[in-house]
Structures are given as C-alpha cells and as structure tokens.
Design a protein that fits this description.
By secondary structure, this protein is an alpha/beta fold. Helices cover 54% and strands 9% of the residues. The protein has an eight-stranded parallel sheet with strand order 3-2-1-4-5-6-7-14, covered by helices on one side. The chain has a six-stranded parallel sheet with strand order 10-9-8-11-12-13. Helix 19 links the parallel strand 1 and strand 2.
C-alpha cells in the first residue's frame, strides 16, 4: 500500500473512532460501508463498522462485518471481544462465554478478555465465576478502577458485603471522582441496611454526573424509605426533568405528592401517568398506581409492563438457577411458605400472626422467610413459639434467598409484599416454588407469568373483575383479610385526651395519606358542612401535610379546627383510640383493608363505597362478611347522604355501635380458627393440583 493510501486509512480509522465516541453510530456505519471497498483487507475498518452496527441494533450486518474482521485478523483481541458483545446483545450468553474463553486460550491472562468474560458470567448469573475472572484481570491491570468496581459488584451479588465494600473503597481510591463508584457504593450501603448513607451516595453520584437521570431517581427511592418525602419528591422531579419519558420517576413523584397531600399540578401529573401506562412505558410501580383512579384492566396493563421489565432483566439468572420441582409422596405434609419484610411490629405481622399460629398441623408444614431482622417484638416472639419454621434471611440477595426457599422444599409460596415496600418481584421471578400466590399485601393483579394464583373472595373479586387478573383466582368463602383479635383492648382515653371535642359527631378516616385524594377529601368536607358540630379525625402527617389539609378545608368553607389529627401510635393503643370515633369514612379508589377491621373491632361502624377494582372493594368485603352490607354505598352521592344521615342521628349510630359490640366475639370476620381452616383448604387445593400434574385453575371454596 502506498504511503498516501496508508495516511488515508489512518485518517479514516480516526474519523470512525471519533464518530463512535460522539455517539454517532449511524454516521460511523455509513462511512465504513462506503470506505470498505477501498480498504477490503483492513480488519480495523470492518471491526469499527461492526461496532457501529451493534449499536444500531443491526445484528446480522454486524456479524458479517465482524466475521470478516476475524478472518483478516484472527488473533485480534478487540474483534473477539466485539463478537462476544454481539452475542450478549442477542441473548446468546453461552456463546459469548465460549468465544471469550477461546480468545483467552490464545491470549492467557489478557485483562480486557477477562473483564468482558466477567461481564458475560455476571449476565448469566454465574457470579462466583465472574468474581474469579475479574480477580484474574486485576493482575494484568492493577490500577484499573473499573475492575475493582466489577469485583465489588460480583461480591455484592454473592452477598459478601464486607468484600464488596472493600473493593468499592479500592475503586474509590483509584477514581475518586467516578460517579459509577458512588453508585455501586450506594447499592452496597443499601444492602447493609444503611439507608441514609446509601441515599447520600446516590446524591454524590448525581453531583458528579448531573446529567444522569437514574442517580436522582435512586436517591429519591431511598430518601422515601428514610422518611424524607420532600427530599424524595424533589429528587424525582430532577430525574423527570432529565428524562421526561421516565414512567418510574413520574409514578414515584405522583405517589410522593399524594402522601404529602401536596395536590398542586396533580391533575396534570396524573394525566401524564395514565398516558405512560397506556403507552406501555416501563417502570411505573404497580403499587403506586393503585392510588390512581384506574380500572382493573388498566392496573393489569401497568403490572404486566412492569413485570416484563423484571423478566427481561432476571431471565438469564433464572435460567442459570434452573429450579426443578421436587417430587412429593401423597402422604407428606404440604410445605407452605410465606415471604415478607413485615413479620414484626408492622401491619403484615400484626394481622397474620394469629392465622400463622393456627395454620400448621400434620397436613401443612408452615415456613416463614423473614426479610428483615428480628425486632424482638411480641409478634416475632409469638411466631418463634408457633408451630412454624422461621427462616431469618435478612440481607440475603434474591438468588440466595430463592435457593433457600427451594432447598426448604416449599410447594406453595405466598407473596406478602409483591409490588409494595420491599418488593419481592425480583425473588419470585426465579420460581423458587412450583406454586406461587399473590395474597393480601397487594390488592391487584401481579400481571406476571410467575404468579399462579391470587387469593381473595367473591365480594372483593367478583366475576366482573376476572379479566383484570393474569392469575387464576382462588376465592375463600369469607373475607380474605386476616386479623388478630387475641390481644386485649385497653380502655380508651377520654375525648379530651384524644384532642377531640366533648360533643358532636366524630368522623374518622385513619388512612395512609396516598388514599386521601382531593375527591375523597371534598366528599368529607361536604359531609362536615351538613353535620353541625362534627369533626374529621385524620392520621397526622409529616412535612406540612396537616397544614395543607387545613388550608384545603378552608377553601371549602370548613373551619380548619374541625380537622383533628391522630398521632401515630402503637397498634393496640391506636385501636383503643378508635373507640372514640362515631363513624369511619372510607376512601376511593383504594378502600380500607386492615383499618376497616380495626375500626369494627373497636366498635366503630365503617361506611364505604363499592369500588371498581379489588383495591376498591376490600372494605365492602369486610362489611358484607361482618353482616353489615347496608353500610356499603352504591355510589359517592349515596355515600355522602348516608354519612350525613348517620352523623345527624345519634340514636342510629348508637344502635350500630351496640350491634357491633354484641356480635364482635362471634363475627365471621374475626373468626381466625375458621379462617385458618379455609386458608388451609385453599393451600391444599392449590398444592394438590400441582402434585397430580394439573395446571392452576380458578377455585371457589
């Protein structure tokens, strides 16, 4: 080749690299395609064309270009790594691993090959092998911060948190301003339970790369977990400004605003959120979407889109785990498992403890997988003494937790979080049990291929809602919400001690603030206007939520002092305070679940409205099975009219309260012995179908 031609070739290569560095893959591909006939024997031009085509998703053309490059330069490390990257893009993980191992045989100890091999092994879920590959690569590149970071990521996936933290610190020393180092440190700190420190690490990553939308988003999630809702909302707003199409940031911003009772611009934000779900935008958290006024079909679309994102990310690791169902003899007890982060002094633990104490017998072997450490409280002490096996799996990464569940031989596994806080979707997707059930914590469809059943009842989940669920439906003959009535209820404090007026009707609506939306609040204000001397008792909020509600009341011509706020109290104390309420007012689109049972147990009647989703019919199920269907209004106008009537008729309220007191001890919604028997039959029916090789099916018990 002439010197001039050699100069042209070098200039061409340089221009291709510059285009790729600028992100102009289309320009690089077009330039290479036009130049290759002039330089048919140059492997580098063909390779760079292949790289550009990979970035454009034109895999067949990329393969042709890279195979040409491999033929021209069979010993090129770069070409073999690019071919492996193409195989990874196509989901051919095993092929990528074999390609890299062949390259490694030609170039033993080559750091770049070892690093990419580590990436491929991580993608395949073979984290221990990935760690070894990264560790070997560090011998050839001891000052490479990225390798230390990769080692930390592998140790994190293996659950080796001290080692992960050590390697992350080494990476930080090598690259103190690298945003990705702080991002991984945030993940490690989160796994260690250091939520505040993890949030700060995400914020440090954001400060170093303010154009990266995922950093403020993840910071917002952890600030939310830490209770800093204003900080979380601000972080979600920053993430949304950087990526206006982010369904995840939009959903979490709306959810934070609802809990802050900050309703400015809420209509516009919720319209955008519904459009995001309709367009199939990934990342909209289904639990947050429950607070939106949506039908069951829209909820299913949201959940299915979210689940598809989880499936895509976790599929390689699920294939690597390959859990095979164990064969069981007909006479063996059915092994039933429950997974939750709430087996302690939290609503899930408080409500399920009585059921779990009664559920196990010679036919059913009960196992609890506790995702949070033992808090030493009464619930964990009761569970430790109950006929159940408690597995402390706090801090276990999802793959390890899945292995533990599979090794325990669980046949029917109940998900007591799903898309709620501490979501288990990245655990259940691995299929650790052959039968997996959505129950109680998330009142909607999971929308997944890995959830076989949803457990409910005919009032909460009637046939008219069936198409809104991807799972098969199992209906109990009673309300499917458990309760613990074993604890004695103390005497209530006086009205004055509760901050309530001595006279007048006390309407209560002790909900999470995400349920107290502007429409529900407006209904409550209309009721107060028509019941002289009445007050509305709400759960105290934080970060100015109470003041925002008082201002909203003033705008609706209701004196702000007619809003009374109950502090957050231990559960038994809170139930005793509810005895001073005259009528509990429910919300839509999410109605009360456990709170409705608490109110009835305290002798406070509950007034609800029949919603159009499972989340909107839970309180109706409680009232129907409690023998109080007359307290279920058909629509919002009827709800207001009934509340006004009862609020102005003290004798009618007294009659309802006496009725609740008289039937409390034998009311079906508080009968946990009967509930446990029905629940056991449901688990056995699901398990029996699996044991005899039958697929899941709708079951009415």
């Amino acid at each position: 080749m002439k010197q001039a031609s050699r100069s042209e070739l070098l200039a061409l290569r340089h221009q291709l690299v510059r285009l790729l560095d600028r992100g102009d893959a289309a320009g690089a591909a077009a330039l290479a395609a036009g130049a290759r006939p002039d330089f048919p024997q140059d492997a580098e031009v063909a390779r760079l064309q292949g790289v550009a085509l990979i970035q454009l998703g034109r895999h067949a053309e990329a393969r042709e270009a890279l195979q040409t490059a491999a033929g021209l330069a069979p010993d090129s490390v770069e070409v073999q790594c690019n071919l492996a990257s193409l195989l990874l893009e196509e989901g051919q993980v095993d092929g990528a691993i074999e390609t890299l191992r062949q390259a490694l045989r030609r170039h033993p100890g080559h750091a770049a090959i070892l690093m990419l091999l580590g990436h491929a092994l991580m993608f395949a879920g073979r984290h221990a092998q990935a760690r070894e590959s990264y560790a070997m690569a560090t011998h050839g590149a001891p000052q490479h911060a990225g390798l230390r970071l990769n080692l930390a990521a592998a140790e994190l996936e293996l659950g080796n948190l001290p080692q992960a933290a050590q390697h992350a610190d080494e990476a930080l020393q090598l690259a103190p301003d690298d945003d990705s180092v702080f991002a991984l440190r945030a993940r490690i700190l989160h796994a260690q339970g250091r939520i505040d420190d993890a949030a700060e690490a995400w914020l440090q990553a954001e400060r170093r790369a303010p154009e990266h939308p995922l950093y403020p988003f993840h910071a917002g999630v952890l600030l939310d977990d830490a209770g800093d809702l204003p900080g979380a909302a601000a972080a979600f707003e920053r993430a949304l400004r950087l990526d206006a199409a982010s369904g995840a940031a939009l959903a979490m911003l709306v959810f934070a605003r609802r809990r802050l009772c900050d309703w400015h611009d809420l209509d516009e934000l919720t319209q955008r959120l519904h459009r995001a779900v309709a367009e199939g935008r990934d990342g909209v958290l289904p639990f947050a979407f429950l607070a939106e006024d949506a039908g069951a079909a829209e909820q299913r679309r949201c959940a299915a889109t979210f689940a598809a994102g989880v499936e895509k990310q976790a599929a390689p690791l699920r294939q690597a785990l390959e859990f095979a169902p164990r064969q069981r003899n007909a006479g063996e007890p059915l092994r039933v498992g429950f997974v939750s982060n709430g087996f302690g002094e939290r609503p899930i633990g408080q409500l399920t403890v009585d059921l779990l104490e009664r559920l196990g017998d010679e036919r059913v072997d009960v196992h609890l997988f506790c995702l949070t450490p033992d808090d030493g409280g009464p619930v964990r002490r009761r569970l430790a003494a109950a006929p159940v096996t408690v597995h402390d799996v706090a801090g276990s990464p999802p793959p390890e937790l899945a292995r533990r569940i599979h090794q325990a031989g669980i046949e029917v596994l109940f998900d007591l979080r799903s898309y709620g806080g501490g979501a288990n979707s990245d655990l259940f997707e691995f299929r650790p049990a052959p039968v997996q059930v959505n129950w109680f914590a998330y009142p909607a469809t999971a929308g997944t291929s890995w959830t076989d059943y949803v457990l409910s009842d005919a009032v909460a989940l009637p046939a008219t809602l069936r198409e809104g669920f991807s799972e098969k439906v199992v209906r109990l003959p009673r309300c499917a919400i458990p309760f613990d009535g074993s604890s004695a209820m103390g005497e209530p404090p006086s009205r004055a001690d509760c901050g309530l007026p001595a006279e007048g009707t006390v309407f209560a609506s002790i909900h999470g603030h995400h349920k107290l939306n502007p429409a529900a609040f407006a209904r409550f204000m209309l009721i107060l206007q028509q019941v002289p001397g009445s007050v509305l008792w709400l759960l105290a909020g934080a970060h100015g939520a109470d003041d925002r509600l008082r201002r909203a009341a003033e705008l609706m011509d209701v004196a702000p002092e007619r809003l009374i706020f109950m502090p957050r109290l231990p559960h038994a104390e809170y139930v005793s305070w509810l005895r001073q309420a005259d009528l509990f007012l429910d919300t839509l689109p999410c109605t009360a679940q456990s709170t409705a049972l608490d109110a009835l147990w305290a002798g406070c009647p509950v007034l609800t409205c029949l919603g159009r989703t499972l989340a909107g019919r839970q309180a109706a199920s409680v009232l129907f099975h409690a023998g109080l269907p007359e307290l279920v209004a058909d629509d919002e106008d009827a709800f207001i009219a009934m509340a006004v009537h009862l609020g102005n008729d003290r004798d009618a309220l007294a009659t309802l309260r006496r009725h609740l007191h008289d039937v409390r001890t034998n009311n079906p919604v508080f009968d946990m012995a009967g509930f446990a028997a029905d629940f056991r039959r449901a688990a056995q029916a699901m398990g029996a179908r699996h044991r005899i090789g039958r697929p899941p099916a709708d079951l009415d018990l």
